[in-house]
């Protein structure tokens, strides 16, 4: 009987299989590394792109913040200019007011009444004076109430005092409040001017 030794053949086959396995494992590792590199590269590109986007957004937000700050300053300046404009318009519209007030007081002043002081605060005017009698103070109040420029005469106080020019004589010292009629800003009407011959 012939005996055949198969060990070298089996050993050769085992070595071949080991080589194939090593080659397959190497290829698999290479593909795995390549795939890992590609995934890492892709993710890195995505991160860089996101970072670029974030930096761009920060730059744009900074620009918008500056624009908002400029708009806020412009609005503040506009509001300040409008306030100044309204003050100037108010001064222009009321610049003849003291002249008209004194003119009306003189026109409506009855005989026997003398003014001591006139003080204006806004549209309110305080008038202090002397009258020979209470009736003359009443006449003054009626005249002021009928004035096209003045309104709401209100007697605050009246009392008998020695006359400034003659301490032996007695006169009535009075304190009166009146209001000035002003044009309304919303209806565009102008306060009526006193007639040339008004008394």
UniProtKB/TrEMBL annotation:
GO aspect biological process, one term: type IV pilus assembly
Coiled-coil portions: 57-84
Residue stretches spanning the membrane: 21-43
Pfam families: PilN
Keywords associated with the record: Coiled coil, Membrane, Transmembrane, Transmembrane helix
InterPro entries, per database record: Extracell_DNA_Util/SecSys_Comp (IPR052534), PilN (IPR007813)
Protein name: Type IV pilus assembly protein PilN
């Amino acid at each position: 009987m012939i005996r055949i030794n198969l060990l070298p053949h089996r050993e050769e086959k085992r070595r071949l299989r080991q080589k194939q396995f090593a080659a397959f494992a190497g290829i698999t590792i290479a593909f795995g590394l390549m795939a890992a590199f590609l995934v890492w590269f892709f993710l890195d590109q995505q991160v860089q792109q996101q970072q670029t986007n974030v930096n761009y957004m920060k730059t744009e937000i900074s620009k918008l913040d500056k624009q908002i700050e400029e708009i806020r300053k412009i609005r503040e300046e506009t509001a300040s200019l409008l306030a100044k404009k309204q003050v100037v318009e108010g001064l222009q519209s009321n610049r003849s007011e003291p002249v008209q007030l004194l003119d009306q007081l003189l026109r409506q002043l009855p005989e026997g009444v003398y003014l001591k002081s006139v003080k204006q605060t806004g549209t309110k005017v305080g008038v202090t004076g002397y009258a020979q009698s209470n009736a003359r103070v009443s006449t003054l109040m009626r005249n002021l109430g009928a004035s096209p420029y003045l309104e709401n005469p209100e007697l605050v106080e009246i009392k008998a005092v020695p006359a400034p020019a003659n301490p032996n004589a007695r006169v009535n010292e009075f304190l009166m409040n009146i209001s000035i009629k002003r044009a309304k800003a919303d209806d565009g009407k102008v306060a009526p001017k006193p007639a040339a011959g008004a008394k």
